[in-house]
Please model this.
Amino acid sequence: MLSSAIYECLDFGEELFTIGSWEHKDLVSRDGNMNFSTSVFFASIDQRSERAGESACTALVAVIDDWLHKNPNCMPIKAEYDTLIREGSAEWRKLFDVEAYRSKFVDGHFDLEAVINARIRPLAVDHESSFIGFFQPEGLDDTYNNFLQGAKYFEEIWATIDR
Model:
């Protein structure tokens, strides 16, 4: 069920755009100790398409994040989402045209710091509330996880958020 605020954002008089479907999901932690129910909406971006541009993910996130902050309690309709993808892709192409960025990120996968420094959109990172986590597949030998030393696992992040 869409909240009334979200429904209003999608209502264009007599024409109501269909942008997908909301689903009710029960989410449970791997250890089974935590769970919650929520409505979720899934969206994806084909980064291999000409519209998106390969490697444009961080620029796309910046543009979409900015839109979501400017439009609280709303979800973009499909046409708006397509426009945001084009805008993010255009921003990515501008970054890729800058030699300093291209030489540092030869594959075009700009990190969040580069996108923030380029001021694609007015973004900042709250390091006190930001986490990067990893799932460890069950049965995976710890010797393969040397590159994750010091990184938090999802369960640790969840415990921090739950406090």
Observations:
- The chain is about 40% helix and 10% strand.
- Residues 1-19 have pLDDT under 50 and may be disordered.
